[in-house]
Amino acid sequence: MEGSHATTTEATGAEGLQNKTAHQDRAEELGWDFNAIDRSPEELCGIILDLLEQNHVCEVLQISREELEGFIGRVIPRYNTTTFHNICHATTVLHSAVMLAKHLDISSVNRLQHVGMVLSAILHDIGHEGLTNNFHINSKSPLAVKYENQSVLENLHAELGTELLLEEPSLLRNLDPDERDEVLATLHTCILGTDMAFHKAQMDMLKDLGAGKIYEGEEPYERAILKAIIHTADLYNVTKTFEVSKAWATRLQCEFNAQVAIEKKLELPSLPFMESSGLVALAKGEIGFITFVTKPWYEALAQAFPEVNKLPLLDNMST
Ligand SMILES: [Zn+2]
After folding, report:
1. Quick check: 257 pLDDT over 50?
2. 18, 236, 288, 289: which is deepest, by most CB within 10 A?
3. Boundaries of every domain in the chain
4. 89 among the known binding-site residues?
5. How many whole angstroms from its chain centre is CA 212?
6. Which sites bind Zn(2+) 1 (predicted)?
7. How far apart are CA 125 and CA 130, in angstroms?
8. 159 Cα to the center of ligand 1, angstroms
């Protein structure tokens, strides 16, 4: 309909997101150290709903809050009860991404891209069974075969997420085809960007931006930045207060140990850091991860986007 299309264009134009701060109270209220563990499913659903609605999802997609709630109700059961890659993790990534998007200067991002980014955050690990890409590749699993050993899990999450969004009546039905494609392309880029295989390439891009170089990547700049935000949010583990970080690290160690048990049964190789157990190994592993992965990443991010220093990421990492 002509009328509804006009409304969509108005709602999704590239007018920037200058007014977003007035709507993001829930994220601020929860604070950077928000801990999603031990929240009831009802509480998590309410938090996800507020965060998505306050990030323009209902407005841009022209859907009601009730419809969005129904969608979240379909997303939550698609997450498994693995110790780490579960709905609590996805909620934390969504919250962290919203906080980062709020504090970083991403004024060239339009509302369709912003909506694609927040939807990717809540969908980015959907269907995760607590097994890594390496496991799928080594065991020649049907998923590894399907995705030809390339970003096996990330391709799965992007596909499942897209399917859920397009399931009739599609959440994207009020967008015109170009608008729908923009949301889905952003979603796809952001989810694929959570594959650690692209970590170095993404860090190089941030370093270039930090050094004042003009962005020359293949994908649009806005999508590349949103992808970096989702990857940063996915690495939240060591950026929270010590107690919250420890709880998540313990859960990840449990998930790794469970995978190692399966690998032993199937006589598949295991990575040494996934075999380790106990608090000392946990602490050693975290220090190594901070030193070689997350600290250089956040330093590159802070060079490209100094505003990120308003969040206690680096402070928390060093305590
Ligand atoms: Zn994740």
Report:
1. yes
2. 236
3. 21-317
4. yes
5. 26
6. 89, 124-125, 234
7. 10
8. 15
Q: Which residues surround ligand 1, an ion (CB under 5 A)?
A: 125, 234
Using an 8 Å Cβ cutoff, are 18 and 107 in contact?
A: yes
Tell me whether residue 124 is annotated as binding: yes
Which residues are annotated as catalytic?
Answer: 85
CA atoms of 245 and 64, how far apart (whole Å): 35
**What tens digit of pLDDT does each residue of 66-86 get?**
999 999 999 999 999 999 999
Q: How do residues 164-206 score in pLDDT, each as one tens digit?
A: 999 999 999 999 999 999 999 999 999 999 999 999 999 999 9
DSSP assignment letter at 238: G
| CA-based radius of gyration for the chain | 19
∠ Cα 212 213 215 (to 5°): 125
As a 3-state breakdown, the chain gives helix, strand, coil percent values, each rounded to 5, of 70, 0, 30
Distance 146 CA to ligand 1 centre (A): 21
Residue 294, amino acid? T
Residue entry with tokens 């909506």: 115
Residue 319: its pLDDT value, please? 66
Residue that wins the pLDDT comparison between 145 and 20: 145
Among 30-44, 134-148, 283-297, the minimum mean pLDDT is found in: 283-297
From the CA of 5, how far away is ligand 1's center (Å)?
Answer: 35
Q: Which two tokens stand for residue 156?
A: 């799965």
Kindly state which CATH superfamily the domain 21-317 is placed in. Answer: 3'5'-cyclic nucleotide phosphodiesterase, catalytic domain (1.10.1300.10)
The answer to whether the predicted template modeling score (pTM) of the entire model surpasses 0.70 is yes
Q: Please give the Cα distance from 215 to 175 (Å, whole number).
A: 29
The answer to whether residue 17 scores a pLDDT higher than 60 is: no
Tokens 């509302």 belong to 111
How far apart are the C-alpha atoms of 185 and 162, rounded to whole Å? 10
Site of tokens 């060591």: 238
Mean pLDDT of 267-272: 92
Please report, for residues 23, 238, 242, 249, 296, the alpha-carbon distance to residue 317 in angstroms, rounded to integers and kept in the order given.
29, 6, 8, 13, 11
